Target: HTH cro/C1-type domain-containing protein
Amino acid sequence: MFAGARLRQLREDRSMTQSDLARQLGISPSYVNQLEHNGRPLTLPVLLRLTEHFGIDAEFFTPQDTARLVADVREVFADDTIDGTLSAGQVDELTTQLPDVARTLVSLHHRYREAIENIATLVSEQGLDRTAAQQPHEEIRDWFYRRSNHVAELDVPAEKLAAELRLVPGEVRAGLTAGLRERHGVKVVAESIGAEQHWFDPVNRVMHLSPALRPGQAAFRLASELAMLETGQTIDRLVDDGAFSGETARRLARIGLANYFAGALVLPYRVFLGAAERYRYDITRLSDLFGVGFETICHRLSTLQRSGTRGVPFSFVRVDRAGNISKRQSATGFHFSRVGGSCPLWIVYEAFSAPGRILTQIAELPDGKKYFWIARTVNRAVGGHGHPGKTFAIGLGCELRQAHRLIYSDGLALGTDAAVSPIGMGCKVCERPACPQRAFPAIGKALRINEHASSLLPYPPQT
Model:
């Protein structure tokens, strides 16, 4: 295989010259140069020497799945405020040969869009500070997105703590309460605290917990506070390394990381992954076994990407009836667009028409990649009669080649005769010219306008 970029990264990370690397491997510097420039393939003997000398897994050199990065770069050049285009071949070459440059380009584009939005806000009549209201949440989502929704620095200690506390699946509340009391002197009191779900008093070492919480919700809140007490320094270090823009983003990052630790504590990695594989990712059975809700199970399934013991790589999304995406994380190549909303043909939105039922879809993106999606609604009551509740649709998707591992694919054709639904990343960047469901014309595409003719297509492109 050709792995020049990865080999160069390995050498530069260790501050080695090509001659230094050649001496370590017992080959000539010119051979190293050819390897790094993909003039020669990486052979098995050289690969074995690399893994032995540097203590890395051979998978370090396997071709990287750049589907998400390709989609991100395409979105940059789909921006109608930027002059210039890249062909599909140029995008592929950039993301494959210079992935760090491509990521920097995407990051700069995000900052550019933020600046444009800030300027628009400052000159608006309302004078609202849109950045302060929205952007910190986007920063946190992007941080988890870049890490494929897996934080090993918290996942491993959470699993270890679950073993130390001897937590039993589905009955973790008592163990977490005892852990807070015995390890940190914290007393847990169940009492009504208004609209709050929980409140920790660090002075008196008392955690107030709403009695309205379901058992799984209560366990999660206990675990999130235990996360702060057990791994506060690790969380602070991760936040510092994240270089977030302000104190609001930093605080949200701490909450997000504490919640991640909580999920990993209530659903320990190997125990949960073993059950998921045993039940073929049956979310209802996993929910019953571990005593937590549908959304919590789906979110945890999207984090099972530990090196050497990976689960199915999932994308996770939560949307409301208006199409707003309030949660999105991905360990797959599936790309959530920031431009032009989501695709109305996506099964996640159809879930609202069948409350409580699990729906399935084989979705194909314009680049030909196919994904298997399941979606279901979840409801949350927040008060008595007359108080509006909360309804969301939860989506969980994986690449079609992984679908056979899921119980939801039983009885479905998954091969060439599969019933495929064509979807896009969002109307403004979607490349499908003949979609009757378009809400916006595609950016950079000329339209066919004729005053004396009409079309079933809302924005017919020029042919």
In short: The first strand starts at residue 187 and ends at 190.
